[in-house]
Amino acid sequence: MTSARSNPDDAPRADALAGAWLAAIARDEVARELEAIYACAAREIESRGPACWASGRCCNFERVGHRLYVTGLEAAYAITRSAHPVTRGQIDAARARGGCPFQEQNLCGIHTIKPLGCRVYFCDRTAQSWQHDLSERLLADIRALHEANAIEYRYAEWRAMLEMFIA
Ligand code: SF4
Q: Which of 70, 57, 62 has the alpha carbon at shortest distance from 123?
């Protein structure tokens, strides 16, 4: 979870971008590389052992005062692997309550496939000394994955990014 960087483009462009990301994540080697980055995040976090009280507060962006930003490839990964397709109504409802369309009660409905920002964010104060650097390093790896496979890179707010896929 971090500060603003960019916004999705206009609707026709968004359609094209979303289509390109879906095609890219359908390639096994691309999906495996992204999963390897997520696995690296898991190892790094496990070695540091931050506390998570599973309160779900961090998924309520308005209440906590932050935003979740993701890459296009990550959004395509979550969308194609989610058991339930996200709808515009769910995104609108999530915006209205200030949260995430995948939050179910206090839990994440896409825990195993959630984006990097969700993986590295902990409200545990002990995490503040390392989570920014870890996030930046792994985000650079995801960007490099885009570049190595000629996948156009975007980094945008989570709900706005999801909307690009249902436009
Ligand atoms: S994807 Fe999961 S962890 Fe991330 S904000 Fe949504 S509910 Fe929370």
A: 57
Best residue among 55, 71, 108, 162 to mutate for probing ligand 1, ranked by most atoms within 8 Å of CB: 108
**C-alpha of residue 118 to centroid of ligand 1, in Å:** 6
Torsion of CA 54, 60, 62, 67, to 10 degrees: 90
Give the contacts of 28 (CB within 8 A, at least 6 positions apart). Answer: none
Which residue's CA is the nearest one to ligand 1's atom 8?
59
**Best residue for ligand 1 mutational test, from 60, 82, 103, 121 (most atoms within 8 Å of Cβ):** 103
In the structure encoding, which two tokens stand for residue 113, read together?
Answer: 């496939």
pTM for the complete prediction?
A: 0.90
Note the pLDDT tens digit of each residue in 55-98: 888 899 999 899 999 999 999 999 999 998 899 999 999 999 99
Q: Which of 24, 20, 52 is nearest to 125 (CA)?
A: 52
Contact 78, 30 (CB under 8 A): no
Q: Which residue's CA is the nearest one to ligand 1's atom 1? A: 114
pLDDT (tens digit per residue) in 96-143: 999 999 999 889 999 999 999 999 998 888 888 899 999 999 999 999
